[in-house]
Each structure stands twice: as structure tokens, then as C-alpha cells.
Amino acid sequence: MKLLEYEAKAILRSAGLPVPTSSIVADLENIPKLPAVLKSQVAVGGRGKAGGVRTVETKEAFEAAAVEILQLEIKGFTPRVLLAEEKIDIAREHYVSLLIDRDTASIRLVAHKNGGVEVEDNDKAGFLNIAIDTSSLEPCAEKLAAHLGYETADLAPLLQKLYAAFIENDATLLEINPFVFTKDGNFVCGDGKMELDDAAAFRHPEWDFEGAPVEANFVTLDPHGTVATIANGAGLAMATVDAVASAGMKPANFLDIGGGANTESVLTAFNKIMEFPHIDAIVINIFAGITRCDEVARAVIAAKQQIPDLPPLFIRLAGTNFEEAVALLSAENITTLATLEECLKAAKEASNA
Ligand code: GDP
Ligand code: MN
User: Residue 282's beta-bridge partner residues?
Assistant: First the structure.
């Protein structure tokens, strides 16, 4: 689950990290302390470049900018709220992040002296990229300080808090870009991007975020995966993920819609899948017992109608109310396939096209 900036910053703040003073703007009535930096709260990067981050000095400028940013679509998302932050006087912008690296089964610290909106253009060689030694953060803090050009004593406590926030919140990514050094000599987290491990939702009753997993049975496997899966029953859901991988494609998620799935819960799953940026096929594999095929069919039809840019669907249904489901779907010109193998073959052809 990707947090919005204000959600991530609330976590950073409670972990004792320096974040700018801020307030949430949901309508034009609550005017923030001015001057302020207004920031679109969408869970994608590149807001600055897209015009979603604007400094306002007056009440009039605030109102005009707020109206514009609330309507501004960034990479397919429009914000529900804005974050109004105190303006910070930036001397330097760095890039600092912690992330789970599955290949080496470690947490890595990645940093660059030049952060900010142009970070993608940075020279690859200029990145510090080291595995965190979980027994002591001191060596990492030394390398980070040397890399960014500060004293270890100044950065070690910040790295300590960043790491604690990462671990305690079951994060898979915590990125501070820009990590700001202000003109008056303080460090501030200028932006906060955080991704949490959906599979850990069961031990975080406090997770109450906009994109919180409604279903504990939705697990992100690969944020860059290309094939999303929807199945019922944990066994069938796992088998479906495995079959996608064996067919040479990258499964993005595991989802067991469970026995009591209704149109609404399946539709929620579709919306969740739409958060993945690289999906080019959705494979639906239902062997209905308690689950009813017609409920799934209704959700598929609703998803087709409500979600623009819905990737192609490859549907295999069997079991309870199968005939009714096929009738509903064919009335909408949505076809089903007889087996999972056929779905995978068609998905592969579609994604290679
Ligand atoms: P992103 O583009 O989605 O990553 O959004 P950021 O929150 O990183 O903001 C983009 C850029 O806006 C930053 O890199 C800063 O250069 C600038 N910015 C954001 N907040 C402030 C601020 O309070 N003061 C100043 N001077 N610049 C800011
Ligand atoms: Mn940023």
C-alpha cells in the first residue's frame, strides 16, 4: 500500500523526524498559515513537475491555486485533499531512501547528494547504495554522512529514526526526496513517500489510510508486475499466481476474494489493481462454491463501466451460477475462457502485442 505524503509525514513526525509544520486543506474555507506550499496529495511522484506543488503568498493566490490543484490530474490521479506546508528555505536537496531488496534479502540505504525533482537524471554512479547492517547503523551513518557531506554525529540520529520508522511500520520503501538542508542549517524531510507491506496489515490495527487494504487477502507481490490476478480460495489464488509466473509473466499480486465476495468487494479489488502502473492483463480465475459466479460477473461489468483504462480481462469461471454469469457477461460482450491455461495464453499474446 502506497501512503499519501501527509500520511507518510505523520509517521515520520511521530518517529521524531523533522517535517515541516502543515495542515490539510479539503476546502477553501480553512485558509492555512501563509505563505505556504500547497501540495497535491496523490500517491504518485513527479507532482512538482506536473504543477501539483505551488507556493502561495496571499489568500487570493491560495484560493486560485487550491482550486487548480484539486482539479489537476497527475498520472491519472486527482487529489481528495491538499497539504499546506510552511515554506522552507532550501539550501540543499538530497535524496535518501530505505528499501527492501528481495534479491539480496536485505534493507538497503540509497542516497544521492543531488535530490529533488531531477533525481531521475542523476548519474547512476553517484548513488550510495549499501545494505543496512542490522546489528549497528553506525557504519551506514558514516558512509551516508561522507556521501552527502555532513558530520556523522548530525546524520546518525536521523538515520536511526528513519530505520526505526521503516521497521516498526513494516515498510517496503521509505523515500525522502528532497531530504533538505535549510539555509539556517537544519535538516527537514521535504517530501515523504512510503509503501507498506499489505501482508502485515493483520498486525497493524492502527492502519487507517486512504489506500488501506480493505481485504487482508490482497498481497502485493511485485509493484512492477504486469499481470494482476483475482481468484477465490487461498489455494486457487496461489496456483493462479504460480501459473502466471510459469507462463513467463510477472504476477503483481495475490488476491483471494474469499467465499463471501460481493460486487462491491470485487470492485474494490479492481480499483486496488489500478494502482499498479504496469498491468497489461487481469487474470480472473474463479471456481465458485459459496462464491457466486454471477456476483463476480456483476463486479466485472461494473468495473468495465466505472474504471477508465481497465486492462484487458481474461476470465475463467466455473461453479455456482455459472450460466447466469455467462449470460450477464455476454450481454455486455465480455467473453470467458474455458481454462486458466487459455487465459494465460491469451494474456501473454495480448501483452506481447
Ligand atoms: P514531488 O515532485 O512529487 O516529488 O514533490 P516534492 O514534495 O518533492 O516537491 C517538489 C519540489 O518542490 C521539491 O524538490 C522542492 O524543490 C520544492 N518544494 C517543496 N516544498 C518546498 C518548500 O517548502 N520550499 C521550497 N523552497 N521549495 C519546496
Ligand atoms: Mn519528492
Answer: 228, 313
Alpha-helix residue ranges (DSSP H) falling in the chain: 5-14, 47-50, 59-71, 138-148, 152-168, 234-246, 263-273, 293-306, 322-331, 340-352
Distance, CA 135 to ligand 2 centroid (Å)?
30
Of all protein residues, whose CA lies closest to atom 15 belonging to ligand 1? 116
Residue 202: the pLDDT is: 77
Ligand nearest to the CA of 36: 1
Task: Give DSSP secondary structure letters for 73-138.
Answer: -BTTB--S-EEEEE---EEEEEEEEEEEETTTTEEEEEEESS-STTGGGS-GGG-EEEE--TT-SH
Are 84 and 95 in contact by the 8 Å Cβ rule? The answer is no
Q: Is the pLDDT of residue 269 over 90?
A: no
Q: Is 223 in the pocket of ligand 1 (CB under 6 A)?
A: no
- What's the predicted TM-score (pTM) here? 0.73
pLDDT in tens, 154-200: 999 999 999 999 999 999 999 999 999 999 999 999 999 999 998 88
Closest by CA position to 8, among listed 163, 202, 165, 214:
165
Confidence label for 121 from pLDDT (cuts 50, 70 and 90): confident
The secondary structure of residue 251, as a DSSP letter, is B
Atom 13 (ligand 1) nearest CA: 116
Catalogue the active-site residues: 95, 175
Residue 337 is given by DSSP the state B
Residue 181 phi/psi, 5-degree rounding, is -105, 120
